[in-house]
Amino acid sequence: MIKKILTMALAMTMCFSLAACGGSDAPATVATSEGQVEDTQASAESDKAKIVEKGELVIGITDFEPMDYKDADGNWIGFDADMAKAFAESLGVTAKFVEIEWDNKALELSSGSIDCVWNGMTLTDEVLSAMDCSNPYCNNAQIVIVPKDKADAYQTVESLADLNFAVEQGSAGKEQAEAHSLKFTEVTNQANALMEVAAGTSDAAIIDSLMAAAMVGEGTSYDNLTYTVGLNEEKYGVGFRKGSDLVGELNAFFKKSYEDGSMVKSAETYKVQAALIPQ
């Protein structure tokens, strides 16, 4: 007991000493329950250094056209994928894409399995409390998808009450289903939610408007589906571990890319330029 008290007292003394000697530029420190002193500033500054050392930025994604999806050769492309590759290059590393269970994104990030979540991620309260996020870069909304021949019957929120929805697990679409007291089944990703509606195993789906613009309607993979009701307005951001110095790096990269036109050009490639937020 005496040993434990002495250890904690030593840790507190070290904290006060560092604060007194270093002034405003001293590393932030905290005493842990075991009496160890943790340098939180060093922790905050470690992400970039670790990534540069290992030579790659590991990015958590799902299959989500037009943000992250595979081309005919199996390479990841899309607005988010292309911007992530360019950001990794600016750090002198390569981008490595890892498909994750969307509901586990915060756990994957905090465990170190991935370095960031960059996948058309809505900046919800839950996300903002679990991660440090970039400035928003795209506007979005959660919208209702139904078979085209039934669209006239579902033009208001009130008309949706009896429908069975497919929603991506852990998504903003699920949050909207819950917020409006709608019946739903969770699926792995938004692409599967569309498949459920096309197959008739779900009456409707709630997905991102940017995905709907790319995959639903005439000339798309789901020309027999359409979107009706918009349920909210939201913004996309990129998530990093709490305290990560990569947030500032990405915000600076976004600003430079927007000003030199490369961000806009990429958005035009994937037809999301109307949703782009000036940086």
Structural features:
3 domains, six-stranded mixed β-sheet, D-Maltodextrin-Binding Protein, domain 2, 11 helices, globular, disordered N terminus, single chain, five-stranded mixed β-sheet, 279 residues, alpha/beta
Task: Provide a short characterization of the protein structure.
The protein has 279 residues and is of the alpha/beta class. The chain has helices at residues 2-22, 40-44, 46-54, 79-90, 105-111, 125-130, 172-179, 190-199, 209-215, 246-259, 262-269, and strands at 29-31, 37-39, 56-61, 69-70, 76-77, 94-99, 116-122, 132-133, 138-140, 142-147, 164-168, 183-187, 204-208, 225-230, 234-240.
Detailed description of the structure:
Strand 11, helix 7 (172-179) and strand 12 (183-187) form a beta-alpha-beta unit. The chain has three domains: 2-42, no CATH class; 46-138 and 235-275, D-Maltodextrin-Binding Protein, domain 2 (3-Layer(aba) Sandwich), CATH 3.40.190; 142-232, D-Maltodextrin-Binding Protein, domain 2, CATH 3.40.190.10. By secondary structure, the protein is of the alpha/beta class. The strands form four sheets. Strands 3, 6, 7, 8, 9 and 15 form a six-stranded mixed β-sheet that branches. Strands 12-11-13-10-14 form a five-stranded mixed β-sheet, sandwiched between helices. The protein has eleven helices and 15 strands.
